[in-house]
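Researcher: I'd like a candidate sequence for this fold, 387 residues long. If you have to choose between options at a position, lean toward the conservative one.
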């Protein structure tokens, strides 16, 4: 039996009824029409202030989120850590907000999660999203080389200040901080800013981590360029490596506006690109890697690379990450073997985490292989428990 096929370890934390609920949920989101209709009805119901939050909570929310507040998440976080040796990363998943008060809220919340991480062994990282700290349009203008108005310049300065505040706190408290990646047409502005911060705070080790989305065909060149600059300037690179969550949106925009799509031509090209990035990072010194993936082959590859380069399973420069509610067979089996594993645990008010939940539902629908894999494993475990 291969490591990730062990369903007893994978679902150790799940009661029989939780197992049944997960099975039912993945069965539902396996159907594309169901997800389309479900998304449309839910969005309508929330806008019309219909009382659907209870239903959302009982289904997708409780499966993919840790709770409404960070405190709600703690019992699950402790349980995953105590029983499964799986760590957690509190992910404030409120998205699509556009005013300064909400950006300050996200800043406060990120600082709070840095404090949590400093106190709790179960929480090894903090995380934030660039557009949580400022308007998407500002990042986009900078990325596209447009001039900012006087007011926009002030907004940008505030964004930069927010980034500096969280990075300073992370460095002072020795809590590594992950910065998520988003749409390609805003990403350069965030990348440049994060690079500056890596240069400041990653002199001795990686504290600030950016994110590489390997579904973008330009990311290997970006990584090599960054590596060269890091070498010249003497800083460590921290990188979360993912495939990328905005593929359909990226392709649609490129087609609509008539530019070459930034996305790899097909799934195999993305997979090769991903594996090349993790291989490159493991071959070079002064890099810390956080492999955010549910792909079994890439996870096995990273284990092989660690062995090849004599890197211990629990070396703090190498982490595996999965999202809460997905791929427990990878997380719990890796953790049992002594690897560093962390789940992103999203939290926030039900209606504010809807964009995140919709992305998860769509991801589990579009990647047919992944859903059927989850379903298969759940089925095997149900049979093993004779349910
Ligand atoms: C801990 C963690 C952190 C994350 N952080 C981010 C983040 O900051 N930013 C972000 O964008 N995403 C992020 N993600 C989401 C991540 O991008 C998706 O979960 C991921 O794309 C799913 O891919 P996978 O590696 O699990 O592998 P698989 O399930 O094997 O791959 C699916 C992915 O392959 C790519 N793909 C599918 N079909 C094609 C095709 N026809 N052509 C080209 N490429 C294709 C897409 O990216 C798709 O999502 C994160 C995920 C995790 C686990």
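Model: Candidate sequence:
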């Amino acid at each position: 039996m291969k490591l990730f096929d062990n369903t007893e370890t994978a679902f150790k934390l799940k009661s029989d009824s939780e197992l049944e609920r997960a099975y039912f949920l993945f069965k539902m989101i396996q159907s594309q029409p169901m997800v389309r209709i479900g998304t449309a009805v839910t969005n309508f119901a929330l806008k019309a202030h219909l009382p659907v939050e209870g239903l959302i909570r009982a289904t997708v929310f409780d499966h993919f989120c840790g709770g409404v507040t960070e405190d709600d998440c703690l019992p699950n976080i402790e349980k995953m850590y105590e029983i499964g040796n799986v760590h957690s990363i509190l992910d404030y998943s409120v998205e699509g907000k556009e005013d300064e008060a909400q950006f300050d809220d996200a800043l406060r919340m990120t600082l709070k999660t840095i404090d949590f991480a400093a106190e709790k062994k179960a929480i090894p990282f903090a995380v934030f999203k660039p557009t949580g700290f400022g308007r998407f349009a500002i990042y986009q203008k900078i990325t596209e080389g447009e001039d900012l108005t006087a007011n926009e310049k002030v907004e940008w300065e505030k964004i930069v200040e927010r980034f500096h505040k969280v990075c300073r706190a992370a460095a002072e408290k020795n809590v590594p901080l992950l910065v998520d990646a988003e749409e390609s047409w805003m990403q350069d502005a965030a990348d440049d800013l994060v690079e500056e911060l890596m240069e400041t705070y990653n002199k001795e080790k990686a504290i600030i981590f950016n994110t590489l989305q390997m579904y973008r065909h330009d990311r290997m060149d970006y990584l090599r360029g960054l590596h060269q600059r890091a070498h010249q300037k003497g800083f460590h690179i921290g990188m979360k490596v993912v495939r990328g969550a905005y593929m359909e949106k990226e392709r649609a925009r490129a087609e609509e506006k008539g530019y070459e799509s930034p996305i790899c031509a097909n799934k195999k090209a993305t997979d090769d690109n991903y594996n090349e990035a993790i291989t490159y990072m493991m071959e070079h010194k002064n890099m810390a890697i956080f492999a955010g993936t549910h792909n079994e082959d890439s996870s096995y590859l990273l284990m092989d690379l660690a062995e090849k380069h004599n890197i211990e399973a629990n070396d703090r420069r190498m982490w595996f990450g999965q999202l809460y509610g997905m791929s427990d067979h990878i997380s719990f089996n890796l953790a049992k073997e002594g690897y560093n594993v962390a789940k992103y645990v999203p939290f926030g008010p039900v209606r504010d985490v809807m964009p995140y939940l919709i992305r998860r539902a769509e991801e589990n629908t579009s990647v047919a292989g992944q859903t059927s894999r989850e379903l298969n494993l759940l089925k095997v475990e149900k049979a093993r428990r004779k349910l």
